[in-house]
Specification:
Length: 267
Amino acid sequence: MEIGNNLKLLRKRLKKSQEEVAQDLNLTRSTYSGYENGVAQPNLDSLIAFSDYFKVSIDDLVRKDFEAYSENEWERLDKGLFTDLKGQKLRVLTAMVDQNEEELIEMIPLKASAGYTAGYADPDYLKVLPTFHLPFLSKSKKYRSFPIQGDSMPPVVEGSYVVAEYVQNWMSIRSGTPCIVVTQDDGIVFKVVHNLLESSQSFQLCSTNTFYEPYLVHANSILEMWRFVNYISPELPDVKLDENELSRSIQQLQQEIHSLKMVIEKN
């Protein structure tokens, strides 16, 4: 493992001494020095503390050799970005299939949605969920159906289900795209997202209901992204005519009444 040398490089990148880092992490200097010099191996609690402190993933900290990093890779680390934004590494995604080995669309019931962040990659969680097919969807893409709560995304009302397409490459998401965003803290949310990965390694999440303020979610906090495809609703959305449409409708109605009068008079 490269962890000792990686810790040393990360510390120097922050321009801090061993004493300063040890104090920040509530360790003795000798204990921290032992980790850097390879005399001792940190336990899981220490690895989590190092990951949070230096803003790197535990996997990178243990497996990667930071000495071989390019300046671009260091820049990403400096920005606290360790998520694989382009999906170049396979993201864990468990899927259910039917007897013909065709992928099914799993429906996450409202009661099961609270446990989704823990069970989204667990076959035991997914295999008890309702599943269905939509034959008009592409067989080359993965879809899942999510419950909608609240009134933040009209015309999609509470009680609806959004069918969404799994997104492997988050960089491909265009600003203004409605998406299901799954985070550890907030669970399943349906929002219009604006891609700010290049500037702030984040997505801005906006509601179509202007009562709700937009907010930022850092890429490191996101577990999954699903692009909106369609939705199943228990309610028919209200149809509102603008002034021109209303005027045309009234004129058409008047013409029809006039025609009826002419017919009646002839008879």
